[in-house]
Design brief:
single chain, mainly alpha, Arp2/3 complex 21 kDa subunit ARPC3, globular
Length: 296
């Protein structure tokens, strides 16, 4: 039986689309009338925190079981510790390994929520809360959710399928590392560069011109340095610890959602009253063998 996506899945998808618009406001501002363009970045900054709250409040009861909350708390603590440990080392963000493996084991919604809670807790403990925090929360949530949306591998022997799965997750880690850097640069690029340079954001300029300027900015500032180190870290981490961690996570599998079954309104026993018989059951009492010396 194919299970249809719940209303929360559709809502989370729509929320992610709106959040992506908050990231991509420099490319979408051209569609806004000239007198309103100056307000677009401020609307984007105000929109993303509200979307984080909306996502947290719209997760259904499948995410509220005791085991789910326990696993989410443990993995959030692990991801927070890993992220704080890598602070100050440019691009070394092993937290992607945790997000990708957990999202693969427990699904897209768990990965999305894990990414958000990890960023929120680590930013709170590390003191790195700022206007970038909601954007980081969504971006890391998408990294975990994307791992849960990857196709299942059901070819060959289980051992061969496991190797292919690790290879797929490692390749996804590399792509996610570069994509994370690009999307995080996109919303901040107009503020970071300013005006009057060859790679500055120009409001009202043709889309290809702004895309070219953004591409050069990202290549110089993060793609060749931070993002590459992040990609290598994710690749090596998933290859080294991926098989063992995936096995451990799947052993603590989340409980399957309960399907409501309608209760029958008919009386028990089709309306007939039955009484348990008190007669001994002959089949339950085995015959006793007589001893050869016993008299007949």
């Amino acid at each position: 039986m194919i299970r249809r996506p719940s209303w929360t899945s559709w809502l989370l998808g729509a929320t992610s689309v709106v959040a992506f618009a908050g990231f991509a406001w420099p490319l979408l501002a051209d569609a806004v009338p000239g007198e309103a363009r100056t307000a677009v970045p401020y609307v984007a900054l105000a929109l993303v925190p509200a979307l984080v709250v909306a996502v947290a409040l719209t997760l259904d009861r499948e995410m509220y079981t005791a085991r789910t909350v326990a696993l989410l708390g443990v993995l959030t603590a692990v991801g927070t510790a890993v992220r704080i440990a890598g602070t100050g080392v440019g691009g070394v963000e092993a937290v992607f390994v945790v997000l990708i493996l957990a999202g693969r084991a427990y699904g897209a919604r768990f990965g999305l929520l894990l990414g958000m809670t990890t960023i929120a807790l680590s930013s709170l403990l590390w003191g790195g809360i700022g206007p970038w925090t909601p954007f980081q929360a969504f971006a890391c949530g998408w990294v975990g959710a994307g791992a849960g949306l990857l196709p299942r591998i059901r070819v060959g022997s289980p051992k061969a399928a496991g190797r292919l799965e690790i290879a797929m997750l490692a390749a996804y880690g590399v792509v996610a590392a570069y994509a994370f850097g690009l999307i995080m640069n996109l919303w901040f690029w107009p503020f970071a560069v300013g005006y009057g340079t060859g790679i500055s954001y120009v409001s009202g300029a043709p889309l290809p011109q702004n895309l070219a300027s953004f591409g050069i900015y990202s290549l110089i500032t993060s793609t060749l340095t931070w993002d590459t180190v992040r990609a290598v870290t994710s690749l090596v981490g998933i290859v080294l610890v991926g098989p063992a961690v995936l096995t451990a996570l799947r052993r603590a599998k989340l409980p399957a959602p309960r399907m409501a079954t309608p209760r029958s309104s008919a009386p028990r026993g089709d309306g007939k009253r039955t009484r348990r018989s008190t007669a001994p059951d002959a089949a339950a009492v085995p015959p006793t063998a007589r001893h050869p010396s016993e008299k007949v």
